[in-house]
Write a structure and sequence with these properties.
By secondary structure, this protein is an alpha/beta fold. The protein is built from 18 helices and 14 strands. About 40% of the residues lie in helices and about 15% in strands. Helix 1 crosses helix 12 (about 335-345) and helix 2 (about 65-75) runs antiparallel to helix 13.
């Protein structure tokens, strides 16, 4: 089902919306981005020896499973202490990390960095290249889409931990109540949106007031390649064929007022998910956990289906994911490397899997027991099969900007007005492009707009 021979899937992950993280993006380009393949090399024996010496490492993360993983690691290696600290989430976390790196003091040994944000830290020289520990030899242990997410240029900055294959979560009870077929194409999705809203003015096919991460995932799935990055050279084309397909389709949903304006993650949003007034969620596999915790009363109503496609086409994308990166100032890199491997491939990865995170490990993705697990929240459906099929269909060639956090903060200013009828999606995307070109040039990149 999931073969290495289907090609390597290029990087993508969720975008953050929050305080702009301003990096000196090119600061590391002249001096290198962390330790490279020609630096000191270490072996497994070196790592094992370091684990026998009394050592403390610090990990900054918002992950709820990391404290349990740290406890398991300490039990396996009694000489090691792992201090897990939550310094905030999203932009708060990244700003504190950046400030600590710039100050040259106070930074952790390891930090959670999402795949979309990883290039910003890598290009600033803030991270260690994991090739020095021989971790580049672990490629076959991970799904191609996530492996490419953690490789930037000629360097490896994380071992993948989780994946975010996109899918369509849908409320079967709502579809059944109104006699609407589950869509497989975007034309069918539009038709379903019309029927659901006509049957109940309070019910909508989806809620969206402008989400940069979702927009990019849908553009990616449509075959778009709006961002091309080659070192310091960036090309931006937010009017390429795939992007236009997305924009034209989404404009119909907006023009016909078929999308709820309910803010995501608000109490009203969770209520609408629970009562079926939001009929679908287009999201990464991680949304399973959100539904189970935030719309527990809707257990049995929801199902998972492949993301709709344009007529006669196939393709999918990623939406979310991240792992642990090693900060360049770590004084205990061998132990930190051991913990990264423990988290992504050893006992720690199993703990993360049990917490509901969707895995990036090939051994799990190809395991029939995992694929055949029946999820009672989703009516006993084998949802993992849908997610793995999505991973297998991820379109190749996607790249994201080395300033994605900034890009996400500006999406609302430029494309956001389209969701309230003040402009169109297509016009908003071009305004976003102008903003991204200008910012990239300010940061020292050579940016070309098509």
């Amino acid at each position: 089902m999931h073969s290495r021979h289907r090609g390597r899937k290029l990087r993508r992950a969720s975008l953050l919306v929050g305080t702009t993280v301003v990096l000196t993006l090119l600061a590391g380009c002249a001096t290198g981005t962390g330790a490279g393949p020609n630096s000191d090399q270490y072996t497994d024996a070196d790592i094992e020896a370091a684990l026998q010496e009394k050592t403390e490492i610090t990990v900054w993360t918002w992950s709820s499973s990391l404290p349990d993983i740290a406890e398991a690691f300490e039990k396996k290696y009694p000489e090691i202490t792992v201090n897990v600290e939550n310094v905030g989430t999203g932009a708060d976390h990244y700003n504190k990390l950046l400030n600590a790196v710039k100050a040259g003091k106070g930074a952790p040994d390891l930090a959670t960095i999402e795949y979309a944000t990883l290039p910003q830290f890598a290009l600033s020289g803030a991270l260690v290249d994991l090739q020095k520990f021989g971790f580049d030899g672990l490629e076959d242990d991970f799904t191609p889409a996530t492996w490419e997410s953690v490789n930037i240029g000629d360097s490896l900055y994380e071992l993948p931990l989780n994946a975010g294959p996109i899918a369509m979560f849908y409320n079967k009870a709502t579809f059944d109540r109104f006699g609407v077929e589950v869509p497989t194409t975007w034309d069918e999705y539009l038709d379903a949106a019309r029927k659901i809203h006509a049957a109940d003015p309070n019910a909508y096919i989806a809620a969206d007031a402008g989400n940069a991460g979702l927009a990019e995932s849908l553009i990616w799935a449509a075959g778009g390649h709006p961002f091309q990055v080659d070192g310091e050279d960036i090309t931006i084309d937010l009017a390429d064929e795939g992007t236009v397909k997305f924009a034209d389709f989404y404009q119909k949903l907006i023009d016909e007022k078929l999308l709820a304006s309910t803010p995501g993650w608000s109490p009203e949003w969770y209520t609408a998910l629970a009562n079926g007034n939001i009929a679908t969620l287009l999201s990464g596999a991680w949304m399973s956990g959100t539904l189970k915790s935030g719309a527990a009363d809707a257990a049995g109503d929801w199902r998972v289906a492949p993301l709709p496609t344009f007529e006669g086409e196939t393709g999918s994308s990623m939406n979310g994911g991240g792992s642990l990166a090693m900060v360049k100032d770590s004084k205990n890199q061998l132990v930190a490397a051991a913990f990264q491997r423990f988290v992504s491939l050893e006992e720690g990865a199993d703990i993360t899997l049990q917490s509901g995170s969707f895995p990036a490990r090939m051994s799990v993705l190809e395991d029939e027991a995992f694929l055949g697990t029946q999820d009672e929240y989703f009516g006993g459906q084998e949802v993992n099969r849908v997610f793995v099929e999505s991973l297998d269909a991820v379109n190749e060639g996607w790249q994201f900007l080395p300033y994605e956090v900034y890009a996400a903060t500006k999406f609302g200013d430029t494309v956001g007005p389209a969701f309230i009828g003040e402009t169109t999606i297509g016009e908003g995307l071009l305004a976003w492009q102008d903003t991204l070109v200008g910012y990239g040039e300010e940061q020292g990149f050579a940016v070309t707009a098509k």
